[in-house]
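Appendix B. Worked example

We walk through a single record from start to finish. Start with the input: the chain for Sugar ABC transporter ATP-binding protein, Taklimakanibacter albus, length 253.
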Amino acid sequence: MSAPILELRALSKSFGPVHAVKTVSLAAHAGEVIGLIGDNGAGKSTLTRMIAGAIRPDQGDIIVNGQKEHFETAQDARRAGIETVFQTLALVPGLDIVENIFLGRELLVPGATGRATRTMDVAAMRRRVEEGYQRFGLNLPDMRTKVAALSGGQRQVVAIARAVLWGSGVVVLDEPTAALGVKQTELVLSFIERLRSHKVAVIFISHNMQHVMRVADRVCVLRLGRKVHDGPMSKLSGTDLVALMTGATIAAQ
Ligand SMILES: Nc1ncnc2c1ncn2[C@@H]1O[C@H](COP(=O)(O)OP(=O)(O)OP(=O)(O)O)[C@@H](O)[C@H]1O
Ligand SMILES: [Mg+2]
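Next comes the structure step. The output line below is what the pipeline stores for this chain.
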């Protein structure tokens, strides 16, 4: 198998007395969807936030394309090609869809000397989003709609669209389908499949075993901060997954 795009080596993170993540290692390859599962409080979001540069590990290394990274901010992780959709969507309600997608990465109008001005190139940003809408078949209202006017599910789709449109190497999705209706869930699952075909590595966190079984190639299970299983999805049933999360013994073991 090719070298991993993203490798986590023995990452640990505590919050005071709580060991949220304990020496977790994980490798994600291009074109691979990893289902990351575990019960509430197992450490999935904490792991996600370390990968995304939102919090720093106490111990362990994050390696992207063979290079050790020390993310200080979410921008650093993005620059390394890692896009994350957090469980709590980081959208700004007062801005429209295009502005949210370009948040922190606004395109600027080129000046006469070829250097960027401080004026946002709204037309260029809209064109880019429009292309993305076409490419991924995004089913969203007019892109000038303020996020405040969207439903919870639509907001989720905007947050995912942002990751999908920018994500070059790794896309991490923390519970992306939790608040979605049937059609939007289908859209998100098909996004994930499309990312795989674009050779992106996807880490997909979900409590819905049906969704995990449909899109994941591999499944990693966290229990009380530790990785307790890492193997091919094909060998496991929904019952096995639940047993791995809760610690019950399963037939496959
Ligand atoms: N900022 C924080 N301060 C203190 N404790 C935290 C913080 N973030 C997470 N924790 C604790 O770390 C542990 C792991 O939490 P985390 O959010 O990573 O779990 P999770 O697997 O994402 O759970 P869920 O499925 O409910 O989203 C929990 O015990 C939680 O209370
Ligand atoms: Mg979580």
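Two observations about the output. The chain has one domain: 6-246. DSSP finds eight helices and twelve strands in the chain.
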